[in-house]
Amino acid sequence: MTQLVSDRPQVHPHRGGVRALWAGNPGAVVQRGLIAARSSSWVVILSGFFEPVFYLASMGLGLGTFIGTVQVPGGGSVSYAAYIAPALLAVSAMNGAIYDSTWNVFFKLNYGKLYEGMLATSLGPLDVAFGEILYALLRGLLYACGFMIIMQAFGLNLAPTAILAIPGALLVAFGFASLGMAVTSYMKTFQHMDWINLVLLPMFLFSATLYPISIYPQWIQGVVMAFPLWHGVELIRALTTGAFSGAMLWHIVYYVVMIVVGLVFTTKRLRALFLD
Length: 276
Known about the structure:
Elements: H1 27-37, H2 42-67, E1 69-71, E2 77-79, H3 80-112, H4 114-119, H5 125-153, H6 165-184, H7 190-206, H8 218-224, H9 228-241, H10 249-274
Antiparallel strand pairs: 1-2
Helix pairs in contact: 1-5, 2-3, 2-5, 3-5, 3-6, 3-9, 5-6, 5-10, 6-9, 6-10, 9-10
């Protein structure tokens, strides 16, 4: 009898090896997002940019006239507006990245059912995760650049290193986009998504954005220093005020670890949901 079935094992295109995770084409996911964005309301997109601008106008330029100067690392002092502006820049980058990596991903994952279609092609889970995160970075970069222009117009960039605040803000956006997508992959209902705002609001208020961390008791300072936003605020503030030093590098390391953890968890989660 002729042997009709080959002895070779049948290999699923998404199982085993690096190719099971990565096809090297996250740009396809970004391109799909940009095409879909054409039909989006740009008023909604820009609304996330104006929130920190309003804080700067009311707190920095308004309340700041009564506060005077604030001490920064390195022994110098700056105006209150120059103190909170870099913090709000970090918040702006965070807001842009978080929106796309949480709410947009939530709809695509649970209602649009887009990832099943993507993973049915040659794309791997890492392509999808990295592509969605890169797309979220675009909004974070848009917000950061716009806010930097406003800071420059009001003379709040006090050092030549302020230009590095743009890649610093991009690093902040990358970290929050990676972790945001990882967390969102576990969300099943709209009520679960409310937890994100429950975390973001206190993190914004207590991450030394509006006043120095030194006003807290020592044990609370330790809690605040565990917040990812605090690391972004300290990094960007050091760049815009000229107080950058080697000690700031640990903030960069924090975000690099945050990015890697987010990518790993998101990739594993997408594979578990749609491939295994």
